[in-house]
Amino acid sequence: MSNRLGIIVETRYLRQAMPGAVIRVFRGRGIAADVICPRDSRFSPERGILRNENGTEFNLNEYDAIISRNRNPLGLAMLAYADLAGILTINSHSSVQRVRNKAKMGIALTLAGIRCAPTFLADHASVLAGLTTDFFPLILKATYGDNSQGLRLIRSPEDLNDLHWGNDLVLAQQFLPSDGFDLKLYVCGNIVHAVRKPSPVNGDPSAPAEIIRPDATMVDLALRCGEVFGLDIYGVDTIMTADGPVVIEVNDFPNFTGIPGADEMIADYILGRIVSRKESIAAERASAVG
């Protein structure tokens, strides 16, 4: 039986590398892959059907898997429906929610014993001025930000005096020294790739990304982060220090920038998960009949 996939994609991600490249792989193989954009749509939890402004309907119950690169509230609600309805989801609603909130993400990583950049949470920015000067500079982040949006570099306590921070929660990470590059660990299943990319804070945006071979420490760190959040396809942003990589944050379904063949790798992984799930269901049914 042929597979049918539903891809929940937030509109802004349609202009990025992923998941468009994976969708093209599926379609090139003759696999039905519907692009489901939740914007300007309505969803019926009773029927599991999304209807968009053009009148097109998508029944989530007809898909073998729901793939998500989305943080739209309606898209997340649909992903939650798919999870609860027993449909295979990649990534699952619960795993996306665990990394969507950067404050909760940092807490989970710390409690799991994963080495992270020192992080501080506050109800307003002025409280951070009470930190000793050796904690500066700081990077302020939006709790629900992504794609490096809303980053603010605070070089000294004095820089906080006139700061207007619109978020209810202030999340600040200590700015760790680097050579202007971040180390990105991209993970699909248990396969880990590593890329040095210019830092969005102090890097040269015109500098090319550099693929490197991940060592055992990088692989272990990346897979541990995935286990904490239950992710299948994800990225781990780190800073390389003299004592090894330090985690900055974890993201669900990144672009896999600079990784050759990432689209084929991800497509193969998703199809493999579908096959495994179908075999497991068939085995359970056979056991019940027997």
Major sheet summary line:
5 strands, antiparallel
Annotation field: number of helices? 6
CATH class assignment of the largest domain: Alpha Beta
**Unreliable stretches covering 5 or more consecutive residues:** none
Describe the structure.
By secondary structure, the protein is an alpha+beta fold. It folds into three domains: 4-91 and 261-289, Rossmann fold; 118-174, ATP-grasp fold, A domain (Dna Ligase, domain 1, 2-Layer Sandwich); 179-252, D-amino Acid Aminotransferase, Chain A, domain 1, CATH 3.30.470.20. Helices cover 28% and strands 29% of the residues. It contains six helices and 16 strands. The strands form four sheets. The chain has a five-stranded antiparallel β-sheet with strand order 14-13-12-15-16. A four-stranded parallel β-sheet has the order 2-1-6-7, sandwiched between helices. Helix 2 links the parallel strand 6 and strand 7 (88-90).
A few lines on this structure:
This protein is α+β, with helices and mostly antiparallel strands and 290 residues long. It contains 6 helices and 16 strands.
